[in-house]
Design goal:
Number of helices: 7
Strand content: 5-15%
Radius of gyration: 15 Å
Structural class: alpha/beta
Distance between the termini: 29 Å
CATH superfamily: P-loop containing nucleotide triphosphate hydrolases
Shape: globular
CATH architecture: 3-Layer(aba) Sandwich
CATH class: Alpha Beta
Largest sheet: 5 strands, parallel
CATH topology: Rossmann fold
Helix content: 40-55%
């Protein structure tokens, strides 16, 4: 289900499995809406990155402190009057609930970036500077819990060119971009 809002929510989360283009789409959406951009992967502890590099899927216990750091960071930014686009896989409802916990009233919009397995696998295989190996894609897809009807958000197909994906993401938010 897609629900839209009249103005950009204070927190927009570009979510999805690896290879969906969370960073690229998130950056463009932030630019178009005049919001801050935060790369969630930058806040992973080194132990999480090391596990992923080795092809070991993260557990809920691995993710919990990272998600809380992101929720706290979002809360501090929002308290300072700074709305933002945050990238985070946010694969499970519980992870999204943790992120929402940092937002006044829990008002976060989740842009669930999505593509078919083969598209994602091909994209991941082409990357040279990312710690997430293609071997973890299946694990992420198995972990992924779709947005539920009571979660503010939309699914956005990431197969088209990046500019079209960003347009679709902004349109899903139901707001006008700046400039």
């Amino acid at each position: 289900m897609t629900r839209t809002v009249q103005r950009a929510p204070s927190l927009v989360v570009a979510m999805g499995v690896s290879g969906t283009g969370k960073s690229s789409v998130g950056t463009l959406v932030a630019e178009r809406l005049g919001l801050d951009f935060v790369e969630g992967d930058d806040y992973h502890p080194e132990s999480n990155i090391a596990k992923m590099r080795e092809g070991i899927a993260l557990t809920d216990e691995d993710r919990r402190p990272w998600l809380q750091i992101l929720a706290d960071l979002a809360g501090r930014r929002l308290d300072a009057g700074r709305s933002l686009v945050l990238t985070c896989s946010a694969l499970k409802r519980g992870y999204r609930d943790t992120l929402r916990s940092g937002v006044p009233g829990g008002a976060a919009f989740f842009l669930h970036l999505h593509a078919d397995h083969d598209v994602l696998s091909a994209r991941m295989a082409q990357r040279t500077k990312h710690f997430m190996p293609t071997s973890l894609l299946d694990s992420q897809l198995q972990t992924l819990e779709p947005l539920q009807d009571d979660e503010l958000g939309a699914v956005v197909d990431v197969e088209p060119p990046i500019e079209e994906v960003a347009d679709a993401a902004v349109a899903a938010l139901g707001v006008q971009g700046v400039g």
